[in-house]
Amino acid sequence: MTDVASAGADPLVEALLQVELPTLGHFLEEGFCDPRIRPIGEVGRMAGRAVTVDLTEPDAIAVNRALVRMRPGAVLVIRVQSGRHAPVGAVTATAALARGAAGIVVDGPVTDLSALTATAAALPVFATGTTALTTKRLGTAIAGVGRPVIIGGVSIADGDLVAGDENGVVAFRSDALTPEILDAARRSDQAEPELLARIRRGDPLEDLLALDTETL
Predict the structure, then answer these.
(1) What is the pLDDT of residue 161?
(2) Which value, in Å, is the radius of gyration of the alpha carbons in the chain?
(3) Domain presence at residue 152
(4) C-beta atoms surrounding 58 within 10 Å
(5) In whole angstroms, what separates CA 178 from the centre of its chain?
(6) Is residue 149 situated within a structural domain?
């Protein structure tokens, strides 16, 4: 199982941390961010509530405003409209860690790759890539703090559930994660080790794999 970032006492956040994200992909179709949003370094699993920033201008002040809004266990979620400027680097990541953030998700690039990689276990960061072009102290995008954003094709509002691991990022409204879906995902995770063991020892695949809809 993947290493887990701390997330506080939110029951749905805790539930997200207890299931494998690809398992949710067996039961849900929406909420999975485009694979261009990828982990920076060797991240553990993280989950938390989104603090969103719609960065319509390359404005570092807006990101700083979002940082001071964060509570422990939150996930900083930033859309970079230009797609060119990095809003997150060593200073922003260190400030997020100081606020107890669970992670950072950027639809755009980040910078200070070595610093973000070094803290990836404590603060998972997900982005489209890296660049040396960074945001400026403009103060022109502060209205975007708390505004809904599109991240990798997924709409994320302030307070939505966001999770990520080495496979990518998912985001859901609270009502999308029903007890039935979470229970089914947990049962699937619990059954998988035995299934893998039986495949490895050569048990007939006809007895193990779903071959029609009646065996799903």
Answers:
(1) 98
(2) 18
(3) yes
(4) 22
(5) 19
(6) yes
